[in-house]
Amino acid sequence: MGKVHMRVYRGNSEGGQLKDYNVQAEEGMVVLDVIHKIQATQSSDLACRWNCKAGKCGSCSAEINGKPRLMCMTRMNEFKEDEIITVMPMKTFPIMKDLATDVSFNYEINKRIPPFTPVEGADWHWEQEDVDRVQEFRKCIECFLCQDTCHVLRDHDKMAKFAGPRFFVRIASLEMHPIDALDRTALLKNEHGIGLCNITKCCTEVCPESIHITDNAIIPLKERVVDKYYDPLRILWNKVFGK
Amino acid sequence: MAMDVRTKRGLGVTLRKDAWWLEPLFYQCLFGGFVVYATWAALNPYGPNGKAYYEYGPYLSPMFSPFFNPDWLHKLPAWLATPALLVLWAPAGFRGTCYYYRKAYYRSIFMDPPGCAVGESCVKYQGESKFFIFQNIHRYFFYVALLFIFVLSWDAILAMMWPVNGIGPDNHSNLGPKEFGVGVGTIVMALNAYLLGGYTLGCHAFRHLVGGGLDFLRVKKNNPIRFALWSVVTKLNERHMQWALVSMLWVGFTDFYIRMCAMGVWHDVRFFGFINKIGHIFGAAT
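YS: structure for the whole thing
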């Protein structure tokens, strides 16, 4: 590989702009490598968050050529030779410095989800299929790319009313857990605003772990909310049979 | 200082370099084209001299099935008095509230958002919590759509019962006995029922109803039949988009095929009827 033309966002909470860098790229490099090279050779004060460089820690989330992606999983040979590669911080979250954003909103939401609470005297032996269903949700690496791309948060700023796809995944992992005793549907409808989701599936498209966020977590949760609040026959059934 | 690129907002604002606009454009053309054709076909069930364009002998267009033509319908304005009016509300309701179609039209028609990480107009957004809360009716449309699968499958079976006395000038089957026959139209109708079955049975609401709503899928505690059903529906659900689009296009094509036969533009080729006739000729010769 030859020289690559990078355009990286430099700024802080007061504002910023894109800055151009020409970097000598080498075979096998990913975008994170190039960012590190810029740090090492041209701008030692360029801030970016990273950790494992293997797509498992979820730290190096950014927007590369406008798409929310992990920098460590985006190979440089995906781009054309003369292409200008733009690297931006995640747009949904407040910026700290350069490519590092403040994602603490997510941890605050997480605190509001009642944790796993097993049924008293539960049988802890359960079938593989039940394990598989909730195991998919546990692949989440909390990169928050789904939160970044979700237009409810990104364009409509509904942080106060909407938990976002990451936390619907977490709630799904608890709600579908065979021996969890709690019912979080009221919380989903009222506090976490699942009704605000219009299932446009961008969260699923950007998930680096290929979790079927919309089909396997959000829609099944929406259906559980329908059971409890919007389906008159189901509500009647539950009243008659005391569920 | 130039405007901070990070804070720019508005419809279509993005740093994406790929052709993100192709997908909404494709769906606008596809859905727009289908809606225009379906509306035109529904409002034009008859040709000159009352010739039926919705059927051709044993073939009945899925846009008019199950066929009802009550007297009160003809008290409506003439342009609206079509039997399709009594039918199309159900598939339209099912598809209109389908989770897949919702994704497609929220993106392509409402531009909310037009693409992932692409800006949208910042009108007051309520998602499906206020006006669009009616989308929660989807499972009820599913129940109706399920009945349609049986009706359309029955239509495909009836499409193998050819009138021995032929087809009248109004395109109705002439009275008299029926004989077994399979034409291209029969295959088109059978494929239509099959594709609609794949789409309907892969519905997210059905997936929830057959087992997805349970915390225990497999089990000691619950009926294993529900797990088996859930597994099948899940398989279909994984390709829900493909089933949805292909079945929609095939409904349009089935109507078009029957209409073309009814108008005399296309000649329907009968396979088994043809083979039977050859058999008769050979039988007579020997």
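YS: worth flagging: The beta strands of chain B are 55-56, 59-60, 161-163, 178-180.
IM: good catch. Also The longest strand of chain B covers residues 161-163.
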